[in-house]
UniProtKB/TrEMBL annotation:
<keyword id="KW-1003">Cell membrane</keyword>
<feature type="domain" description="DUF5698">
    <location>
        <begin position="21"/>
        <end position="78"/>
    </location>
</feature>
<dbReference type="InterPro" id="IPR044035">
    <property type="entry name" value="DUF5698"/>
</dbReference>
<feature type="transmembrane region" description="Helical">
    <location>
        <begin position="60"/>
        <end position="80"/>
    </location>
</feature>
<comment type="similarity">
    <text>Belongs to the UPF0316 family.</text>
</comment>
<protein>
    <recommendedName>
        <fullName>UPF0316 protein BCR21_01290</fullName>
    </recommendedName>
</protein>
<dbReference type="GO" id="GO:0005886">
    <property type="term" value="C:plasma membrane"/>
</dbReference>
<feature type="transmembrane region" description="Helical">
    <location>
        <begin position="6"/>
        <end position="26"/>
    </location>
</feature>
<dbReference type="InterPro" id="IPR022930">
    <property type="entry name" value="UPF0316"/>
</dbReference>
<keyword id="KW-0812">Transmembrane</keyword>
<dbReference type="Pfam" id="PF18955">
    <property type="entry name" value="DUF5698"/>
</dbReference>
<feature type="transmembrane region" description="Helical">
    <location>
        <begin position="33"/>
        <end position="54"/>
    </location>
</feature>
<dbReference type="InterPro" id="IPR019264">
    <property type="entry name" value="DUF2179"/>
</dbReference>
<feature type="domain" description="DUF2179">
    <location>
        <begin position="113"/>
        <end position="165"/>
    </location>
</feature>
<keyword id="KW-1133">Transmembrane helix</keyword>
<dbReference type="Pfam" id="PF10035">
    <property type="entry name" value="DUF2179"/>
</dbReference>
<keyword id="KW-0472">Membrane</keyword>
Length: 177
């Protein structure tokens, strides 16, 4: 058993899949310049790794190590994307109407979040509805801030595909260019 070859196969496939996961995330978030560049490195590494395994199919451990590199590469790619926290999230926070005196919309604005406030009717009465736009990197601190001020908040988040208008537009355009 050639340990050096097994390590090389693992590292090559790990690198390929990590880049593949990052490239996929970049593509989904609309990074039109960097995603194709990452894909060039990705496919070069892929061809190298696959040829190493296909030329040594007599040893099934090579295939197992290749698959292990694949699995670990996906995990690390996801962690890197979480660390980079690319893009924006839109959070809807639905609050009991009795929280109006907390002035949560103003507190959130003071922390730099874009907030649109409206009111709706829920099962148990009137509700304050906050639509909050935030960079993904601030997602956890946004949830923490909302929960500190109103632990009964019902929170839903999603990633917007397109953002236009409002005071955030200039910030978003600067970051995407």
């Amino acid at each position: 058993m050639d340990i050096k070859m097994l390590v090389t196969i693992f590292v090559v496939n790990f690198s390929y899949i990590t880049l593949n996961t990052i490239r996929f995330m970049l593509t989904m978030k609309g990074y039109r310049l960097i995603a194709p560049l990452v894909s060039m490195a990705e496919i070069t590494i892929y061809v190298l790794g696959l040829s190493m395994v296909l030329n040594r199919l007599d040893n099934p451990i090579n295939l197992v190590v290749y698959a292990l590199g694949y699995a670990v590469g996906i995990s690390v790619g996801i962690k890197i994307e979480d660390y980079l926290a690319l893009g924006y999230i839109m959070v809807t926070a639905i609050l009991p109407s009795s929280t109006e005196q907390l002035n949560l919309p103003e507190i959130l604005r003071e922390h730099g979040y874009g907030v649109t406030q409206s009111f709706g009717a829920g099962r148990e009465g009137e509700r304050m509805i906050l639509e909050i736009l935030s960079p993904r990197k601030n997602e956890r601190s946004l949830y923490k801030l909302i929960n500190e001020k109103e632990p009964r908040a019902f929170i839903i988040s999603y990633e917007p595909k397109f953002i236009s208008g409002g005071f955030w537009t200039k910030k978003v355009r600067k970051r995407n260019n």
